[in-house]
Amino acid sequence: MSPRRTSCLLAVLGLFVTLLAAPARAAEDLPFRDPALSLSRRVDDLLGRLTLTEKISLLHQYQPAIPRLGIGLFKTGTEALHGVAWSTNIDNGGAVVTADGTVFPQAVGLASTWDPALIKQVGTAVGTEARGFNARNPRVWGLNLWAPVVNLLRDPRWGRNEEGYSEDPTLTGAMSVAYGSGIQGDDPDHLRAAPTLKHYLANNNEVRRDTSNSSLRPRVEQEYDQAAFKPAIAADAATGVMASYNLVNGRPATVNPDLNDVARSWTRRDLMNVTDAHAPNNLVNSQAYYPTLTEGDAAALKAGIDSYTTDDTNAAPTVNAITAALSQGLVTVADIDRAVRHLLSIRFRLGEFDPGGGRYGSITPDVINSPAHRALNRRTAAAATVLLKNSGRALPLSPSTRKVAVIGPLSDTLYTDWYSGALPYQVTPLAGIRERLGTGATVTGTEGADRIALKNVATGRYVTAGAGASGAVLTEGGTTAGDTAKFDAFDWGQGVLTLRSAANGKFVGYNWSSFVNDQSQPNGWFVQQQFKLEPQSDGTYLFRYAGYETAYDWFGPNKYLAPNADGTLVLTTADQAAKFTKEVVTDGTAAAVAAAKSADAAVVVVGSMPFINGREDHDRTDMNLAEGQEALVKAVTKANPKTVVILENSYPTTINWLQANVPAILWTTHAGAETGHALADVLFGDTNPAGRLPQTWYRSAADLPDILNYDIIKSNATYLYSRATPLYPFGHGLSYTTFAYAGLKLNAPSVRPDGTVTATVKVTNTGRAAGDEVVQLYTHQRTSRTKQPVKQLRAFQRVHLTPGQTKTVTLTFKAADLALWDVTRNRWSVEKSPHDVMVGSSSTAIHQRTTLTVQGETIPPRDLSRPTQATTFDDHSTAELADLTKTTGDTVATTPGTWLAYNSTLLPSPTTFTATTSTQTPATRVELRQDSPTGKLLATLTPPPTPDKYTYTTTSAPITRTTSTHNIYLVFTGPMRIKDFSLTR
């Protein structure tokens, strides 16, 4: 190329670069980039410069770049429940992006620390690493973090139990404030990262999770479910909420008007509310709530959704739907502007439009998995460990212990969950104990799993895997059981096994066409590494594939394995399945018993596999420890009475035999790379365990109501209302030392509704070891117009005490915290009543108590002469709350035999019973009765049928004479919706 041509080309390129750069340089001088201006002025300036098309484009999760203003892409939604998750990912160009961050204990484990100050440090580390990941690749890791989950752990069978904090709103609120404020940082004007609370509202089941209805009577909604979300929003420790998949009182949460009307009322800050993944499409598909995506997206925008998480990176369906909604008058430009304002407000606070990215813009990837974060992880995992039982001072293990057998399926592995990052390294329990005891000790390890070989009875050939790192397709191989024909079988309960190839240490999984031993652990959305060996009457087994996708019946009856013509194992029906013999090459229990007999102490590590024993989209149907694991514990305990069990799982487990027979039991969640170090610290007394259970451990699933029953008041659920004797109560946890309580005092014997209660109690370490005590304060209201909790946590404090040391612990709460939701007037009310104030080490271990007189009000009798919302009942049988209209309001849906009770009702000789109802079933009656569902019949209504459930009619009937104050019951003979009713003269 000649110099002249080169010069011309350079000139053209220079002009081209200048033209491209000019808008960006000009944008640098625009007012919205001036950090000296107020946030509102900056948002107004940028909003005014965006075209309508650009505004609409920002409503999708992947907010596109706007080059003319120098604005880059912004992605909402980085999972960060206990560390930045999904740290191995694919960027938009298809390249693999890997960065291994710090994985802290699962969220339920974070809450078991009962230490908000520590959890704030964890949140700070997570927010800092989120910045580091974002600096590495902002297309993969955005700064809007989808954490924490604050859904209450109402039912321990919930598949996502590991993601939540607690069954109690006070503890959950404290943890969410701590974690969220740590993520955000302490600068009121700038965000390190932007936490989003999941999942609004009452999302505590996975079965039919997008179509099931969480029926929330007003008291449960106000006092329980909303109470978990309010603290972090009110403390400005969260920047928005994610709407859940389920229906709330018959209306999809994606279009729940609470998103605007309630959540935003708790703060003066802008909130950025998002949908859950693909939830907008559910409105049209599984929920069939709206006929078109245009109508569904419009309703979500009106309800308070700002960002649509749907269709992965494809924004076109959302953009087209909102554009169509605007043209059809379903939304206005003001609706769009309002949502975009919320989005931009968060982006400004993140420093995106500040020079250098603002206060936190200089954070680099060097912070990821830093030594300081590793140390914090170890400390947190130890602080979260709960000592469930310690008989005869079995723990800590004696310094003279030199021979330890570490046994069990979780003894030499660490598992991650769906919302974990990849572990940058692993210190397993076996490794941690070996390191702690050093070279002079003998530490033996065995997983206690049978090594088996499967031989096809018909062909005489063994199931064979690959020996290389990538494994191979399972086929029928030779007639002898070589290494490639051997598999370690791990029992996860209810017959479910995972099979790890002895040839390469990889698990066998299904890849939609064949079975391959190529997985480092069970994983993926469908978890295709699950099998069952079903015994037959002739002593053989059918080899069944039990991956989670079979729950959807995608394969029909094709769930069993048989060889193809080429020997490859494929799926077929039970009648065509091959029959196999199971040869036990190595008896795992026998090996464990032998190891235990020769040891000074046996440590058995059992528990769950987070992708198998309940997880997102799959609730547990059984709370027991896996049958094979319990049998292993029994055998080891018999072989060595100095047995310690470590239960490593994500939720309460029914371990009645262990509690009765094993000397010592520790519980931990899946706690990250430092699990082994933390457990060794606790086992040998370097750390005195002080974790406390954040939820009740039940003796049996029979102690629980149906998982879809959200009415904790009626069903006597959680420690708040349950009167069953638990295996371990809420707040339970032991220590290597002992504590004494004395001198509980209140700042005053009574309090007004606007007052504050300050309780002081002296706590003394009466043992020989330094340790932490978690001092817990509960209250119980003795008298009320309605049912009250058995007790309720109001305050707590984790305090460290050396041997012999006494500290005066101060616990405070507001009298307003004692308020109940008065359904008769639809407002909070602090009632006049004496309250028991109880301080102790768990919800059942109460060591000091006193009485507090609350100078509240006496709620007057109900006045039913005015229209009374049917939803404001005091008690009910089989009532379900439903949607009054598609946009707002609740109603009560009934079935035959449903009754509603309205207590303490003043009846000044009413003569007419009037009700506003909807029914499509002729001759359905509503009976007005006195004092019980079968009490004196006062009136009967037979409303005429209406065209649909959203059309109501008002009918009246005469009342048999009644006076005085009574409890009034409405009894229904069939399906009906009732909006309101009145008793008038």
From TrEMBL:
Pfam families: CBM_6, Fn3-like, Glyco_hydro_3, Glyco_hydro_3_C. SMART domains: CBD_IV, Fn3_like. Residues 866-984 form the CBM6 domain. Keywords: Hydrolase, Signal. Transmembrane segments: none annotated. InterPro entries: BXL (IPR044993), CBM6 (IPR005084), Cellulose-bd_IV (IPR006584), Fn3-like (IPR026891), Galactose-bd-like_sf (IPR008979), GH (IPR017853), Glyco_hydro_3_C (IPR002772), Glyco_hydro_3_C_sf (IPR036881). Belongs to the glycosyl hydrolase 3 family. This is Glycoside hydrolase family 3 C-terminal domain-containing protein. GO terms for molecular function: hydrolase activity. Residues 1-26 form the signal peptide.
